[in-house]
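Just wondering, can you check both lines?
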Amino acid sequence: MIRETKFLISRKPFAVDLDSFRIKFYEAGKSGLASVDAVWFRRRRGVTVACIGSLHTWEREEPASATAFLEAYTDGRYGGDCVGRWDGSSYWGNVPLAVQEQHLAVLRPMLANFPAVPAGYDGWWTFQPAP
């Protein structure tokens, strides 16, 4: 991924919680699933929505840091794994009510302050090469 200073929704950027970086290794294959929590904006049918979820990929070795993980993460064809979405009037997500409330505590101010990076997140990261 590439860290950018300017927000352009067309480049499909993500803001990430660097402190949430984790990797779980599986003994049999000696590879692990590395992930980091993320939020992002997208347009759905002309409406800007705020999404929350994670970015993840399989790793053979443990990256030194969340930043090293992101810089080495180049396969963005699937984007983020969205678990919650807020469009300003309705929430989408198949999670318990308590988790929905946690998501909305992030997504409501995020959408209200579009396109600012939400507090506690580092952004903007994109898979797309510089134009």
The first helix runs from residue 66 to 72. Residues 2-123 form one domain. The longest strand covers residues 31-44. The mean pLDDT is 91.
